[in-house]
Amino acid sequence: MENIIKDIDILSPEEAQATDYKTTEEVNTGKQKKLYIESYGCQMNFSDSEIVASIMKDNGYDTTSDFEQADVIFLNTCSIRDKAEQTIRKRLSQFNTLKKNRPELTVGVLGCMAERLKEKLLDEEKIVDVVVGPDAYRDLPNLVTGAEFGNKGVNTFLSREETYADIAPVRLNSNGVNAMISIMRGCDNMCSFCVVPFTRGRERSRDPHSIVSEARDLFAQGYREVMLLGQNVDSYKWSPEENNKARLSKKEDEVSEVVNFHHLLEMVAEISPLLRVRFSTSHPKDITDEVLYTIKKHDNICKYIHLPVQSGNSRILELMNRTYDREWYLERVSKIREILGEECGISSDMIAGFCTETEEEHQDTLTLMDIVKYDFSYMFFYSERPGTLAAKKFADDIPLEVKKRRLAEIIDKQSQLSYERNKLDLGKIQEILIEGKSKRSNEQLKGKNSANKVVIIPDGPYQKGDYVMVRITDCSPATLFGEVVS
Questions:
Q1: CA–CA gap between residue 357 and residue 350 (Å, rounded)
Q2: Distance of alpha carbon 89 from alpha carbon 83, whole angstroms
Q3: Global pTM?
């Protein structure tokens, strides 16, 4: 298996405003038909592409890094911002010449954009043959076969059960060290700005035993870090009788057992102390003290939490339907610091210029940032999405230039805070998991500490997947630099 990767930049785990990264992968197994996949958006989309690659591989397709050699092209899409969808449309236009020269080529649009637009995509983008939503990937081989005979196909059925628990993903962009494991699908939160509940359906949790089995297999293959993925991992809830959270919550007294997220975390952590465990994304309304104490109990559960706030003002949070206010959020941060210490990494998502936001309310976001002192954040200005509650109820009334100015102030603030947080690590000795060569120099190695910070060290007799103890000697707002200590 040979990995060929281009232009990858995985963004916010909550699918918060993710836009335009691309990945490709080549798997050489000697079969004839070739599949080319591009994934746009967040970690959840990339994880889904690994599932798609596995389904297609089982049906006779290798994946290729050269779209000109492909029999099938899939674009796995994001709908969280308009820019993301425009990126997909532009990319489709670039395939027009290829399609004209090879009309037998099958082009498919997958994921959230497919779910949002459905049959409309076939009308708007004549090049597209197949439109498939996130819960219908098992139908891809049938739809592709139909397209080969001239029958365009759409399957955007949203399931209350599908978790793809039985599918072993083809590891794309694999460095052999880090891997993603999807633990749940869908979202029951109805944040007014977000399209995800409409494109990914209701929350349902994957069988924890299948998750542990996948993590154990990854560890046996040499992987040393797994990321447990979900739109809202803290609301993970499973029983042998029911995996749909809404239904399970109504009959919790009737089932034989209930596995919550802190149970799952511990089950994965106990595979081996050499297997690091990360997770994303947490929702402030759901993260519990039990989760925090489980993190504290196990050294191999990373001391890092992505806790999106979106706004620092309670009125705006209410308009966003985030179901918590400023005080609740700050209490959760205080509890994280109390249980896990000041060194625990905390990151966030933030939206500048949400509907009706005043200058004073914008300042509340900046002051909250000063209190929390995030290690880093994913920051964007508000982008109205058709079909969301905000689009139906509120006017997008903040001028673009004001949004951009407020966003610039948030970015400047975060840069200052990131530098302040990184300077606190100077002189400390931290355990680093080596992930490979630094992007900037083959004479340097790159790794991460428990708080999810990138650490650069001089090259040495170390391999990917090694743990080394490093003294931090220097830093920038984005990176730590260190030297290995004996």
A1: 13
A2: 10
A3: 0.89
Amino acid at site 340: L
Query: Residues with Cβ < 8 Å from 353, sequence gap 6 or more?
Result: 362, 381, 382, 398, 402, 403, 406, 407
Strand partners, 31: none
Distance CA 440, CA 456 (A): 10
Average pLDDT over residues 326-334: 98
| Mean local confidence (pLDDT), 445-472 | 97
* Two structure tokens written together for 432: 């680093």
Nearest to 391, CA basis, from 162, 241, 198: 198
pLDDT confidence of residue 457: 97
pLDDT single digits (tens) 413-425 = 999 999 999 999 9
Q: What is the 3-state secondary structure (H, E, C) of 283-328?
A: CCCCCCHHHHHHHHHCCCECCEEECCCECCCHHHHHHCCCCCCHHH
Chain segment 12-54, per-residue pLDDT in tens: 333 333 333 344 443 444 447 999 999 988 888 899 999 999 9
Higher pLDDT, 387 or 347: 347
**Cα 129 to Cα 150: distance, rounded to the nearest angstrom:** 8
Range with lowest mean pLDDT among 16-30, 222-236, 325-339, 343-357: 16-30
* Token representation of residue 82: 């308009």
Contact 354, 382 (CB under 8 A): yes
Phi-psi sector, 166: left (phi>0), alpha (psi -120 to 50), beta:
alpha
At 471 the three-state DSSP class reads: strand
The radius of gyration computed from the CA coordinates of the chain, to the nearest angstrom, equals: 22
Burial 449-470 (b: 16+ CB within 10 A, else e): bbbbbbbbbeeeeeebbbebeb
Alpha-carbon distance values, 455 to 236, 293, 469, 475 (Å): 31, 26, 11, 9
